[in-house]
Amino acid sequence: MFGVVDLPTYLAGLVLIILLPGPNSLYVLSVAARRGVRSGYTAAAGVWCGDAVLMTLSAAGVASLLQANAVLFGIVKYAGAGYLAWLAVGMLRAAWGMWRGRGEERAEETGPAAAPGERPFRRALVVSLLNPKAILFFIAFFVQFVDPAYAYPALSFLVLGAFAQVASVLYLSALIFSGTRLAAAFRRRRRLSAGATSAAGALFLGFAAKLSTASA
Fold first, then answer.
1. What Å distances lie between residue 5 and 8, 55, 109, 121, 149, CA to CA?
2. Which one of 43, 55, 118, 161 is least enclosed by Cβ atoms within 10 Å?
């Protein structure tokens, strides 16, 4: 179908990959829990746009260039790791602020780690784009299901990308609505908010460390 081979295997692998936790899904969940459904979908839109860009670059062969060029790969890798670490530090600072002011009633109004200047779409987009492992994943995974004899390989990539985006929409939607359920508890309990934000920050530090040791 449209140059796609072994579609059932692709879909099964896609589901497993989508379900693996990562910085994108964690950030969307965090935004939804702190700021509600609308902001959660704003962050999710950043993820989807970032994934679309990576898929397009993969289809164009840019990912292969990164894989072949160690210097370029290293620049992207450390830039991504640095950005994730910066986000982690921000989360940990916000958590520390909540621990110090956990008795304040204004937590019920603002919610946990409410950041007026935060731009969920932009942050999620950057997190998505500065992820060399994701770029290499797309090129390594997608090409296995494209028929090399098909006359229109771009159409094959488009079909595979569409399935990936649909799966991502369903998964992130589930996370967003789960996050809003947590929001009520976060608004009532400052300690719970601080603990969850600390855990998210620690996970982002872990993602940054893992990314900094990634190889092409």
1. 9, 18, 52, 34, 11
2. 118
Tokens linked to 204: 């982002």
The percent helix, strand, coil of the chain (3-state, each to 5) is 80, 0, 20
Computed over every residue of the chain, the mean pLDDT equals: 75
| CA pair distance 69, 6, nearest whole angstrom | 31
Helix (H) or strand (E) run with residue 90 in it: helix 70-100
Whole-model pTM: value is 0.71
Report how far residue 57's alpha carbon sits from residue 165's, in angstroms, rounded to the nearest whole number: 15
Q: 117-128 burial by CB neighbour count: b if 16+ within 10 A, else e?
A: ebebbebbbbbb
- Distance separating alpha carbons of residues 98 and 121, to the nearest angstrom: 24
> For position 112, what pLDDT does the model report?
45
Residue pair 20/26 in contact (Cβ under 8 Å)? The answer is no
Query: Which tops the pLDDT comparison, 190 or 29?
Result: 29
Q: How far apart are the first and last CA of the chain?
A: 31
